[in-house]
Design brief:
It is a multi-pass membrane protein. InterPro entries: COX15/CtaA_fam, COX15/CtaA_HemeA_synthase. It is built from eleven helices and no strands. By secondary structure, it is mainly α. α9 runs antiparallel to α10.
Length: 370
């Protein structure tokens, strides 16, 4: 890719970031750093949802190279190559629409990278000047490293032609980035408004254990859901609650969960058997029972604590919607809008469980100090 195209891409990332950065800079809020953190959370959530849309519309190879599109900074400049690829394979991965979907996803990702760089620079400068806890640069530095790793996996997603394990890790890293930003946002909120001493410490420690367990099971379920999506196994079971008319259908776990292989192929290079796709779908579907049990119990326990109740109510609502959209995706034969909502629901669960983990830890700290 030519240097001029790389410069144009970098400028596009800066342009995407300018609007949110300007809004934060001109805001009347005295704590602009905190505001920028929550803007980054919002945009990262949007990126995850749009990334799901990109994957679900089969646009991941809309531009089959990286970081540009056929070596160009945008699909306008690559229109000739895209049109030729579309004419050669009209139903293939490269079309004008898919190219734009893929590049918009990349532009948004670059914009978030610029915002995270702004967070790191601001935190470092202010920490050196003031030593205020709000500007401790550890988490912003971790975010910068994280977003660089995420960018590398974004590149490998394309260059390795949507290899399922790479795409799934890319999804998990996106959720991890959202969780880390949310944790930073929780810190900024806590430093502005510390809660009063409240609640029984033994009950709070029980909620903390549940919150940690919820984070683990949600992470596993997102990995399983990403594995379903990246292997195109969503409709391997096209009925609910049974699968292929049985509670336990015929399944091939060996090929279904062999991680290092090409899309649609076994490790030996043969076509992936349908029973492998059934195994992938069936495990994700049934692990959801454990997720509902753990997260539902967490929401119920946290609901009774004044500092946690608001997030607990949201968590319970999102959990119900997530369960319904998962069933509806199968029942209505994989409609795009519901599938995107299901992806968004997973991101919301990550955000809310992260906030509950942070809040219960801080409430315990306040109680110990009080």
């Amino acid at each position: 890719m030519q240097a001029s195209s790389l410069i144009q891409l970098a400028l596009m990332g800066v342009l995407v970031a300018i609007l949110p950065l300007s809004m934060v800079w001109m805001a009347s809020s005295p704590n602009k750093f905190r505001k920028l953190v929550w803007v980054a959370v919002f945009l990262t959530f949007d990126l995850i949802v749009f990334g799901g849309f990109t994957r679900l519309t089969d646009s991941g190879l809309g531009c089959p190279d990286w970081p540009g599109c056929y070596g160009m900074a945008n699909p306008f400049l690559a229109h000739e190559q895209i049109s030729a690829a579309e004419a050669a394979m009209p139903t293939g991965p490269v079309t004008v629409v898919k190219a734009w979907i893929e590049m918009i996803h990349r532009y948004l990702a670059m914009g978030i990278g610029v915002i995270i760089m702004a967070l790191l620079i601001t935190a470092t400068v202010q920490w050196r000047k003031t030593r205020m806890q709000a500007f401790k640069p550890g988490i912003p530095l971790a975010l910068f490293i994280f977003v660089c790793i995420q960018g590398a996996f974004g590149a490998w997603t394309v260059t390795l032609k949507l290899q399922p394990v790479i795409v799934t890790i890319h999804l998990l890293l996106g959720m991890g980035l959202l969780a880390l930003l949310t944790w930073l946002g929780g810190r900024e909120d806590y430093l502005m408004h510390k809660p009063p001493r409240a609640g029984d410490d033994a009950a709070l420690r029980g909620i903390r254990t549940l919150a940690l367990l919820a984070a683990v099971v949600i992470t596993v379920q997102i990995a399983l859901g990403g594995w379903v999506s990246t292997n195109y196994a969503t409709l391997a079971c096209d009925e609910f609650p049974l699968c292929d008319g049985r509670v336990v259908p015929e399944m091939d776990f060996e090929h279904g969960f062999h991680l290092w292989r090409e899309l649609g192929k076994t490790a030996a290079g043969h076509y992936l058997p349908f029973s492998a796709l059934v195994a992938i779908h069936w495990v994700h579907r049934n692990f959801a029972i454990l997720v509902v049990a753990v997260v539902g119990l967490l929401a119920w326990r946290a609901w009774r604590h004044p500092y946690l109740a608001k997030h607990a109510k949201w968590l319970a609502g999102v959990l119900v919607v997530q369960l319904l959209t998962g069933v509806a995706t199968v029942y209505f034969d994989f409609p795009l809008a519901i599938a995107v909502m299901h992806n968004a629901g997973a991101a919301l669960l990550v955000l809310l469980v992260t906030m509950l983990n942070y809040r219960v830890n801080q409430q315990l700290e306040v109680n110990r100090a009080g």
